[in-house]
Each structure stands twice: as C-alpha cells, then as structure tokens.
C-alpha cells in the first residue's frame, strides 16, 4: 500500500490540459501533493511527460460514477486525506439552438454538473476541517454569449450548487467556492467549435473588447485557485471569484 503523503493533497479533475494542468503546476510549487485526472490517452501521456514527477496522473472519466469511486479509493490509499478538491473537468461546445441535439445536451450536463457533484460525493469522506472545494464555472453563466445556452446553463447550475454546498458543508469546516474565468488561452478554446481560420480573429476581437486588453492565462486562474485554497481565504465560502479581465463589466 502507498504511504499517505505528509504534504497537503490536492485533486484536480480535468487536470491534463488548460487551466487544470496550469493549476497542477501552481499547486505543486505551493507544496501540495497533486493528483490530476483526465480521460484522453494523448493528454494523459502529455501530462505525465510535462508535469513534475511528483504529480500523479490518473485516468478517470468525469461522467462516470464508477470512475469517481475508483478515484476516491486511489486518493485514500495515496494521500489519506484531501486539503483541496478542484472540480475543473468540463466541456464547452458552441452550439446554436437550431443545431442542438440531445447528445450534446446530455454530454454537457453529465460532465459539467452530474460528474462534478458525484465526484464530490465520493471524495467527501477525505475532506475535513480546513479543506476547500472549488468549482470551475464561467462568466458565461451571467454574460450571455450566442450559441452557448447549454454550456451557460451548466455553469449556472454549478454556481447554485456552490452556494448550497457551502451551507451544507460549513458545519464540517469545508469551504466551497467557484472561480469563473472569462477568455482564457487554453486548448478548450481551440475545441469550442469555431473554425480554425476564424479563431485568431475571434481572439483578437475579444481581447480588444476587454478592459485589460488581453486574453488571460491559465496560470492566472491557477493562482486564484491557490489563493482560495489557502488560509488567506479562510473566511471566504459560497463565493464566485471572477477572473475575466473586466469582461463582466462591459
């Protein structure tokens, strides 16, 4: 059996690319023992190659409750307890209402809502006083964007969960918050459904509209996650922390 780590342990779902991958590096630098999950063989292999050797890369499908149970067993054996659960796995597909189908709808809610909730349920016994749960939501839940109705609905559902779970878990000393990124340069942007030839124009147009004049980085979101998990944020729960370069103010 693996001996539990003496370092504070952090789980990052959807941690093999983008914000999750960058956050894994940030948390490792902050002294966490980190486990990231993903399901794509290529990104799993790339994460194992590029992350520090101490970071554990574990295959788990965010939609699968059986995988959530296997993940909880791995975390218990490897770490014993968890200080941070960063529920970051998610998908975003640009889908106008006219072309939306049931498969896309189900996929968004299965990954972005159901999977996150049941993953938390399975790992809850590993969380205790002083621990932190953080969901990745999105400014799109409030700042309407064409073609993103279902994605925005899942992110709004997450924020409702955050508020309620913060009240549910407060008696156990567990804080629950959300981070809501705006335009962040990640591989998810490349898979959003925008044609490749239009993507650069889209990035430039969006950046020009932002008060800070640029698209954010995944590392900037990772540093916000690290703050929310730290003792410096010990009186923050049920909150949605926005990192959008001012997008929500326009």
TrEMBL record:
Alphabetized UniProt keyword annotations: Oxidoreductase
SMART domains (UniProt xref): PKS_KR (SM00822)
Keyword Repressor applies: no
SUPFAM superfamilies: NAD(P)-binding Rossmann-fold domains
A Pfam cross-reference name: adh_short_C2
Keyword Oxidoreductase: yes
Ranges of residues in domain Ketoreductase: 8-182
EC number: 1.-.-.-
Catalytic EC class: oxidoreductase
Highest taxon, organism lineage: Bacteria
Coiled-coil spans in chain: none
Entry's Gene Ontology molecular function annotations: oxidoreductase activity
Family annotation (InterPro entries): KR_dom, NAD(P)-bd_dom_sf, SDR_DHRS6-like, SDR_fam
Gene3D superfamilies: NAD(P)-binding Rossmann-like Domain (3.40.50.720)
Protein family (similarity comment): Belongs to the short-chain dehydrogenases/reductases (SDR) family.
Listed name of the protein: Uncharacterized oxidoreductase YkvO
Lineage: Bacteria, Bacillati, Actinomycetota, Actinomycetes, Frankiales
